[in-house]
Design goal:
The protein contains 7 helices and 10 strands. By secondary structure, the chain is α/β, with parallel strands linked by helices. The structure holds adenosine-5'-triphosphate (ATP).
């Protein structure tokens, strides 16, 4: 469904990704661990078509992202991809419901049905009562759940999650991650999860380690 074939990425003289090979199947949860600065986030951006690769190809459902024009790539990302970042990156002026409904609004859904969908997903994450609050009125864990709801509300094909629980304490991180992966699995959504946390990575179907720009597949027992 999503693949990287010989992907290379440079920032000026710095080579961030060296010939990365990866295959993500429908509904698969893949985790990428590795030291700070090893290139995990950079690979995520390549896979999501956010940065153009210097060499090699990223393919999504048979289409080479690097050969698509900006408009088509944006439309593909909007429909098929979801994103969760370390700090939820919620919009402070919108309510929780409105934040979670954003991807549907960007896809052209009317406000009422989009909010109803958002409330349904928020409810599955235990936030049914918080829809009318602003993000500033939520805890860190609740904000990350809203970010998860926003990433999944449009039932994307794949969610890219960059340290989605990195800002939370370990108990909270574990709970949010469990809810995130359970919801993604129930929707058949694939996840590429970047994390420093090897325990978090052990919940994935497939594991990779990024070592100085080189992506190395790892056996589950190695974690
Ligand atoms: N915009 C940029 N311009 C120049 N160099 C960059 C840029 N972004 C990242 N880098 C460099 O590319 C390399 C990989 O960075 P990247 O953020 O992908 O690593 P990471 O494994 O995600 O790190 P962390 O776990 O700390 O987030 C690092 O050497 C970093 O300094």
């Amino acid at each position: 469904m999503l693949s990287a074939e010989g992907v290379e990425l440079f920032y000026g003289e710095t080579q961030a990704i060296r010939h990365a090979e990866m295959l993500l199947r429908r509904g698969e949860i893949a985790a990428i661990t590795g030291q700070s600065g090893s290139g995990k986030s950079s690979l995520l951006y390549c896979l999501a078509g956010v940065v153009p690769v210097a060499d090699g190809e990223v393919r999504f459902q048979g289409r080479v992202l690097g050969r698509m024009d900006d408009q088509d790539l944006c439309a593909l990302r909007r429909e098929h991809f979801g994103f969760v970042f370390q700090y939820g990156e919620l919009l402070p002026e919108l309510t929780v419901d409105e934040n979670a409904a954003l991807p549907l609004r960007l896809l052209g859904h009317r406000k009422g049905p989009a909010l109803a969908e958002a409330r349904e997903v928020l409810g599955r994450l235990g936030l049914g009562k918080f829809g009318r609050r602003r993000p500033s009125q939520l805890s860190g864990g609740q904000c990350q759940r809203v970010a998860v709801a926003r990433a999944l509300v449009h039932k994307p094909t794949v969610v890219f999650a960059d340290e989605p629980t990195g800002s939370l304490d370990s108990g909270n991180a574990s709970a949010v991650l469990h809810e995130f992966l359970t919801l993604a699995r129930s929707m058949g959504t694939a996840v590429v999860l970047v994390t420093h946390d090897r325990h978090v990575a052990s919940r994935a179907d497939s594991l990779y380690e990024m070592c100085d720009g080189v992506l190395v597949p790892r056996a589950r027992e190695a974690v």
